[in-house]
Design goal:
Radius of gyration: 29 Å
Largest sheet: 5 strands, antiparallel
CATH topology of the largest domain: Immunoglobulin-like
Mean pLDDT: 83
Low-confidence stretches: none
Order of helices and strands: HHEEEEEEEEE
Helix content: 10-25%
Structural class: alpha+beta
Number of helices: 2
Shape: rod-shaped
Number of domains: 2
Number of strands: 9
CATH class of the largest domain: Mainly Beta
Distance between the termini: 104 Å
CATH architecture of the largest domain: Sandwich
Strand order of the largest sheet: 5-6-3-8-9
Length: 149
């Protein structure tokens, strides 16, 4: 067999490339189908927002202020304030609306730099800012308070 004949022979190239392509397509399809069968494909994009909040309590004014520092914006109607312990909400809260379940819905969207103030009665307790869109819920920030009464 001559060297020029070996270099110009192309009969086996096409079937080998065809087999490699078929194996690659089969592996990719198996990976995609397997991901959805075991549930890894569910919930993609369904995450709670990641945001950083500061919380400060002024015991003289009995006011807790949450300040959005950075991260994802919290859409209007998905942030709630929950009060526990001896503390209870004061009736003069302008940024929130009391819900039937005892939570207080924040009536505005929260983005970097925005604040929500919440006035309380009582001597001690915890005030928490919670994200809840109906499907997912997480506590964004909590603060223990001591009011002077």
């Amino acid at each position: 067999m001559k060297i020029t004949q070996i270099l110009t022979e192309e009969r086996a190239v096409s079937p080998v490339i065809g087999v490699i392509l078929m194996v690659a397509i089969t592996v990719i399809l198996a990976a995609v189908i397997g991901t959805f069968v075991i549930g890894l494909g569910e919930g993609i994009g369904d995450t709670t927002p990641s945001a950083s909040f500061d919380a400060e309590h002024d015991s003289d004014a009995n006011t807790t202020t949450f300040t959005h520092r950075s991260g994802d914006a919290i859409p209007d109607g998905t942030a709630y304030i929950v009060v526990s312990g001896d503390a209870s909400a004061n009736g003069t809260n302008e940024d929130v609306t009391e819900q039937d379940d005892g939570r207080y819905q924040v009536d505005k969207a929260l983005s970097a730099g925005s604040t929500v103030a919440f006035e309380t009665n009582g001597t001690s307790g915890t005030v928490s800012l919670i994200y809840d869109d109906g499907d997912r819920s997480t506590t964004l920030r909590s603060i223990d308070i001591e009011n002077d009464e």
